[in-house]
Amino acid sequence: MPLDVSNPPIAAYEAVQSVVSDLAGKSGFRTPALRRAAPGGLALSTPHRIALLRLDRVRETSDLRRSTEIRGWRFLIHDGDRVIASTDAVLNQKGGFDFGQINEGPFNGSMEQAIRKAEALPAVQQAHFEPVVLLVPALYIVALWLHAADGENDLVVPLPPAPGEFRPLEPLAAKDFLSATKRLAERVPPESGRSDDSSGG
Questions:
Q1: Residue 141 vs residues 5, 23, 78, 137, 171: alpha-carbon distances, Å
Q2: Which domain holds residue 68?
Q3: Total structural domains within the chain
Q4: What backbone phi and psi angles, to 5 degrees, belong to 35?
């Protein structure tokens, strides 16, 4: 069955829609695919929450759900049938949403691939899962996190390019994803200075 795409708050949708529409109307995009696209052909789709897993939490956690921070919502930007970018609405200190960024990085296309592959998985066809984008910036990991409605059988699909501990686009149980992530974290010196704040591409 299709993944259970959640309805984002109206404020999150409006935060990105207003900026995308304004830039399209003014031919104001700075990235190549969006510059080439016909303004009237752009559309937002597949809203999904953004979850951040910090390096210190990787080292401490045995529970993915309890250790991540929800940072906002991401939308895919389509030019006709093609995904060419994504855009984020980020939570602000007042509990509302601000426009975050527009990104044409490699993870946008691989997110679409991962969603299509996930929908064909027997486990997903037999139960309900919500797509979430999971970011582990300090380890250069972006993944499709399949939030199980039963709260117990989450799956994680690492997106390419992915570190060598993972097979890109191959789903893992959440506990196995965490085990591999911990092994990667052990190789990072505490003073390395790797950022936990990147939102991924």
A1: 22, 30, 24, 6, 14
A2: 10-186
A3: 1
A4: -65, -35
